[in-house]
């Protein structure tokens, strides 16, 4: 298939492009580089042997997007482009609403106009808010707790209504749990701008000596060691699920929503221990109060993804840490 990937130079998009390309799909990227570097394109070329066609454009720019669609003539769209920081979304909620929701509406309009009927959409476990219990299935109540989560929920709802109104449009909504790790080559990975908000990139920077210690947000949760438990998933496993989702849309011809996680939760302290083993570095810790808005435990029931996509995660926590550390060592300042 010819696949247009919005946000394709970002963390998850770039890894997904390596999987799409290795499985014979043609890829074109649209990215405004608000959180990515064009250098990703060279890395993709050296990993895959193919330099993807890319367009620098904002998905909210309707005229630009329309002309990209007319040039590329995609069979399907994978839509990663979004702002993704929970903290920033409280500081600039209108920017988040505009970038994520307006951007998605413009994309859906242009898809409609150009007759593109297949969409894979990046959603997030954030739509479950404070889950009542774990593992979390796709039927769990949806109740978001921050403006970023609100944008994901609204976009899911818009896509759902559109598919209900027009059966020829099919969407795969993928709810990611906690993506971590990097491409095994060490040439692609996560490059947070500023101090990392998420655990794995923060640990990487402590191990590299860029930060003194890791703040552990809360050790009084109702979990085995009191620290927060999450479902970390290797970004290459996540990448593979996108190609599988495209295949499933082609074969089953109907829309679906699936969780993408391993189904196994690890605590902050377990992740730290695994990282220390993988890197041979000590991670000094400082225990602090809970972070506002955090839940104690959050991990997926991934059985629907196994049924729908024939997909299960393959990489374990050790591998997630090894690959994240390789990326950190090779590219200490990101891309
Ligand atoms: P990222 O920031 O690395 O990638 C997003 C890409 O989209 C960037 O390259 C950015 O430049 C681009 N972009 C943003 N707004 C744009 C716009 N208006 N027009 C064109 N390009 C635009 O983020 P990521 O971690 O790769 O996340 C990809 C998707 O997955 C996002 O939708 C995110 O919300 C979702 N998600 C991420 C996580 C996570 O922990 N990384 C978890 C759940 C869901
Ligand atoms: N944590 C620390 N110290 C840190 C950073 C995080 O102790 O410096 C803890 C958190 O309290 C939590 C765990 O590590 O217990 C994981 O935190 P992350 O920030 O890495 O991930 P979250 O689960 O909080 O959130 C992430 C994304 C959300 C997304 C969610 C589910 O930031 O946008 O995963 O996909 F919605």
Task: Describe the fold and architecture.
The structure is a single chain. With 335 residues, this protein is an alpha/beta fold. It has a domain at 2-182 and 232-261: Rossmann fold, CATH 3.40.50. Helices cover 42% and strands 17% of the residues. It has helices at 11-22, 39-48, 62-72, 86-91, 93-114, 147-165, 199-207, 235-252, 268-279, 303-309, 317-330, and strands at 2-6, 26-31, 53-56, 76-79, 118-124, 170-176, 178-180, 214-217, 229-230, 232-234, 256-260, 266-267, 285-288, 297-298. The strands form four sheets. The chain has a seven-stranded parallel sheet with strand order 3-2-1-4-5-6-11, sandwiched between helices. It has a three-stranded mixed sheet with strand order 12-9-14. Strand 5, helix 6 and strand 6 form a beta-alpha-beta unit. Helix 1 packs parallel to helix 2 (39-48). The relative contact order is 0.15. The mean pLDDT is 97.
What is the CATH T-level topology of the domain at 2-182 and 232-261? Rossmann fold
Mean pLDDT: 97
User: Ligands in the structure?
Assistant: nicotinamide-adenine-dinucleotide, uridine-5'-diphosphate-4-deoxy-4-fluoro-alpha-D-galactose
CATH architecture descriptor name of the domain at 2-182 and 232-261:
3-Layer(aba) Sandwich
Using only CA atoms, what is the Rg? 19 Å
Largest sheet, strands/sense/barrel: 7 strands, parallel
Number of strands: 14
Helical/strand content category? alpha/beta
List the helices and strands and how they pair.
Elements lengths: L1 E5 L4 H12 L3 E6 L7 H10 L4 E4 L5 H11 L3 E4 L6 H6 L1 H22 L3 E7 L22 H19 L4 E7 L1 E3 L18 H9 L6 E4 L11 E2 L1 E3 H18 L3 E5 L5 E2 H12 L5 E4 L8 E2 L4 H7 L7 H14 L5
Parallel strand pairs: 1-2, 1-4, 2-3, 4-5, 5-6, 6-11, 7-10, 8-13, 9-14
Antiparallel strand pairs: 9-12
The chain binds nicotinamide-adenine-dinucleotide and uridine-5'-diphosphate-4-deoxy-4-fluoro-alpha-D-galactose.
